[in-house]
Specification:
38% helix; 9 helices; five-stranded parallel sheet; alpha/beta; binds S-adenosylmethionine; 16S rRNA (Cytidine1402-2'-O)-methyltransferase; EC 2.1.1.198; elongated
């Protein structure tokens, strides 16, 4: 059927592409890619000859107009990002909104996603979780973002870059205390896939001892309990609790 297809692609292991994704990519009139060279490798591997066009942060606006015009003429356009699910910490949102506003059908073609893959094997509570994408790169903003996290029964899931992970762990320790339980999922679905589970203090010292930290990372924080928070937070919590009791 004509419409916009959001096609998930592998986050490492090429076997994680679905049969449906392969068919949709083959049958599409065009594939709009975050990076055409990156996607071309995937298409070559599966011998898919569909023409590609770039669709990324810097041309999202103009490209959206052009693709919507084609979609209104009955085209089948597939959107892919470099890896994983389009629209999740990746381009896609703008064209979905525009397609819906123009009465074009939008179809999700589900598949690999780093956040969900990390979460399900983390051992943390998967019943309720919050996905935050990337933390701010700037130290001050990152600390505020961490301080603003809602406490309670919720697992927090982040994407993080390997060159920033130690700074972020230091901030987490500062805000939540050394005993905050965290999980780091690195290189998911790849040859060197690794899960590190433990307190932020332990994982910090483990990682600092390494000559280098490479690869892609999903970082997760266990639900924050009173026991695992720093003195400051304990005092705030105590004040909140006593205010609640009074009211
Ligand atoms: N759209 C993608 C998805 O569905 O997961 C995410 C795109 S985002 C720009 C890229 C970030 O996702 C990386 O910096 C890393 O934090 C995380 N990521 C992607 N692939 C990963 C993998 N194989 N292992 C761990 N984290 C990964």
């Amino acid at each position: 059927a004509p419409g916009l297809y959001l096609v998930a692609t592998p986050i490492g292991n090429l076997e994680d592409i679905t049969l449906r994704a392969l068919r949709v990519l083959r049958q599409a009139d065009r594939i709009a890619c975050e990076d055409t060279r990156q996607t071309q490798k995937l298409l070559n591997h599966f011998e898919i000859r569909t023409p590609t066009v770039s669709y990324h942060m810097h041309n999202e606006g103009s490209r959206t107009e052009e693709l919507i015009a084609e979609l209104k003429n009955g085209a089948r356009i597939a959107i892919v990002s470099d890896a994983g699910t389009p629209g999740i910490a990746d381009p896609g949102g703008q064209i979905v909104a525009a397609a819906l506003a123009s009465g074009v059908d939008v179809f999700p073609i589900p598949g690999a996603n780093a956040a969900i893959s990390g979460l399900i094997a983390s051992g943390l509570n998967t019943e309720r979780f919050t996905f935050h994408g990337f933390l701010p790169a700037k130290a001050g903003q990152r600390k505020t973002a961490l301080e603003d996290l809602v406490r309670g029964d919720v697992t927090h899931v982040f994407y993080e870059a390997p060159h920033r992970i130690l700074d972020t762990l230091a901030d987490i320790e500062g805000v939540f205390g050394p005993n905050q339980h965290i999980v780091i999922a690195r290189e998911l679905t790849k040859m060197h896939e690794e899960f590190l589970r433990g307190t932020v203090a332990d994982l910090r010292s483990q990682l600092s001892a390494r000559a280098s930290i490479r690869g892609e990372i999903v970082l997760m924080l266990a639900p924050t309990t009173i026991e695992s928070t720093s003195e400051d937070k304990k005092n705030t919590l105590a004040a909140e609790v006593s205010a609640m009791m009074k009211s």
